[in-house]
């Protein structure tokens, strides 16, 4: 019975860090994607930047967005 529990525990321990990193990486993309602070073009630019430089560009987004005039 213990072996069955250790298999699940090992699976959880091995995948949890990967899932945590993935969730933390996706949070800025979701926040920017749902934001109404910027227009479509600027949102696309911010999403592209955040996709590659996740939290650094997300912090810049929170500080300086909107940069361009809203196109909606």
Automatic annotation (TrEMBL):
Annotated transmembrane regions: 12-32, 44-64
This protein's UniProt keywords: Membrane, Transmembrane, Transmembrane helix
Presence of keyword Transmembrane helix: yes
Descriptive protein name: Cardiolipin synthase N-terminal domain-containing protein
Organism: Shewanella marisflavi
């Amino acid at each position: 019975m213990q072996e069955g529990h250790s298999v699940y525990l090992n699976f959880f321990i091995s995948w949890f860090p990967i899932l945590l990193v993935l969730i933390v990486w996706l949070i800025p993309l979701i926040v920017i994607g749902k934001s109404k602070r910027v227009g479509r073009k600027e949102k696309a630019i911010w999403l592209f930047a955040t996709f590659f430089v996740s939290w650094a560009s997300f912090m810049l987004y929170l500080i300086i967005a909107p940069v361009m005039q809203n196109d909606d």
